[in-house]
Amino acid sequence: MVSTETPICNFNAPAINFSLKGVSGKTHSLASCAGENGLLIMFICNHCPYVKAIVKRIVRDTKALQALGLNAVAIMSNDPVEYEADSFENMQKIAKEMNFPFPYLIDETQEVAQAYGAVCTPDFFGYNADLALQYRGRLDASRKESASADVKRDLFDAMYQIATTGQGPIKQIPSMGCSIKWR
User: Fold this and answer.
1) CATH code for the domain in which residue 104 is found
2) Using 50, 70 and 90 to split pLDDT, how confident is the model at 2?
3) Residue 3: which pLDDT band, with cuts at 50, 70 and 90?
4) Across residues 143-149, what is the average pLDDT?
5) Residue 3: CB partners within 8 Å, gap ≥ 6?
6) CB atoms < 10 A from the CB of 137, how many?
């Protein structure tokens, strides 16, 4: 496992369209996932200790963001042949166990992750209502272990600001996680 940090936010970069199969069997696109006030695109996987440490917080925060008109979608781009824990069947299992309130999609060709420039899991891309990038930072101070319960909610606060103003915070702390497992 290689630990990687995300690059700085490329403000106003447009969201890139995709068409990916979700764990429900339904195909999802950028348009079908977007909310009235924006969209959070998350590159996650099942086996990464960084994701495991925050997955309950991701569920909590994405549920709260829905009330603000912000939708979320999670994309798994790792090579499931080399990482069986990231297989489609295991994605379905995790999504059900964790009660994901967002679509969980498989990027079998890894083209979507490459188009977005995703580098690690988790990698968060926060878009406003115009689907212009406003956030590329961390969820919170968690690393391979969850941070304390009262830690500042960087992602939630940024997405709240995006939902209410259309603009993300200028200061953003990069997300850190396992590198995407490329074929």
Assistant:
1) 3.40.30.10
2) low
3) confident
4) 89
5) 120, 176, 177, 178, 179
6) 22
